[in-house]
Amino acid sequence: MKLKSPFHNNRRVVPMGAEIKNKIAVVTGGAKGIGYAIAEEFLNQGAKIVFIVDLNENQGTETAKTLNSKYGDARAVFIKCDVTKDLDKAYDDIASKCPSIDILVNNAGVLNEHSLRKTIETNTVATVEWSMKFLENMRKDKGGKGGVILNVSSIYGYMVDELSPFYKASKYAVMGFSRTLGHTKNYNVTGVKVLVICPGITNTDFILDMTINEALDFQKEGMHELVTIWPNQEKEDVANAAVKILENGPSGSAWSIIGGELQLLD
After folding, report:
1. Are 107 and 99 in contact, with CB atoms under 8 Å apart?
2. In sequence order, what E strands does the chain have?
3. In Å, what is the CA distance from 213 to each residue of 114, 193, 217, 224, 229?
4. β-strand 76-80 against 49-54: which pairing, if any?
5. Tens-binned pLDDT, residue by residue, of the chain (266 aa)
6. DSSP structure string for 236-264
7. Which residues contact 237 (CB under 8 A, 6 or more apart)?
8. What's 48's DSSP letter?
9. pLDDT tens digits along 19-44
10. pTM
11. Distance from the Cα of residue 180 to its chain's centroid
12. Contacts of 72 (CB under 8 A, 6+ apart)
């Protein structure tokens, strides 16, 4: 895919915070790493409530406590959830507190080249199911207010090399699903903007686990080289990019964030 400069061709630039302030957001995999950074940046931009969805109860509880101490009581709400199994229960819990959701970020993901099913179920199936569930909540043609769904893919959602075939399969699928669901013709009906962000190497525990534990045995050296050669970025770089995309990106668009540089993908 070719890269373009972001927000080109005189696209309308929305003032910072216009799409975030006073909104209700849900972030899966939000207890740590990129998900945590996105949740915090949403609160920093004035989100009313951010639901932190994660399987790790201890980490999730601590995350909500930390964010509430910084941004105000009950601004962050933790929901314990396995995204592959607990969608209906988690949705009902969220909707009972906030019937109308404005933003969904499907961030929860794994890299496990020893389990195709876990990789596809977490990265692809859960992303599709959560997107469709929350789309129904947001749809203007069914009485909703509209909204935004941001799906987290990866540079491995469009790049090709010799590494991580299971992970690539899952993230390529996220790209195809998101760009199709977010097609202009669909957006014109539903009023729900669907976007996809593709982070490069980001300094999180996920990267450490990936290089040490989860690569195929004959690919560990190549994975280590990938992590050390590619430009790194911090999770805050991805969070800042997520806000810019939500505010400015047209529905169906896909964006890479590599070494802190945000680019629009063709």
Report:
1. no
2. 3-4, 24-28, 49-54, 76-80, 103-106, 147-152, 192-199, 254-258, 261-265
3. 10, 36, 9, 11, 19
4. parallel
5. 544 544 443 333 333 345 899 999 999 999 999 999 999 999 999 999 999 999 999 999 999 999 999 999 999 999 999 999 999 999 999 999 999 999 999 999 998 888 999 999 999 999 999 999 999 999 999 999 999 999 999 999 999 988 899 999 999 999 999 999 999 999 999 999 999 999 999 988 765 555 556 666 666 666 666 767 777 899 999 999 999 999 999 999 999 999 999 999 98
6. HHHHHHHHHHHHHPPTT-EEEEETTEEEE
7. 202, 257, 260
8. S
9. 899 999 999 999 999 999 999 999 99
10. 0.90
11. 17
12. none
Name the one residue in this structure whose structure tokens are 């690919």: 219
DSSP SS3 for 221: helix
- Which tokens sit at 198? 């593709």
The partner residues of 77 in beta bridges, in order of sequence, read 51
123 vs 144: CA distance, rounded Å? 27
Asked if 37 and 70 count as a contact pair (C-beta separation under 8 A), the reply is no
Encoded amino acid at 147, one letter: G
Report the DSSP beta bridge partners of residue 263.
256
For 107-253, where are the E strands, in sequence order? 147-152, 192-199
Q: Is 158 a catalytic residue?
A: no
Residue type, 84: T
- Of the candidates 36, 167, 172, 187, the residue annotated as catalytic is 167
- Residues 23, 226: Cα–Cα separation, whole Å: 38
Cα(164)–Cα(202) distance, rounded to whole angstroms?
17
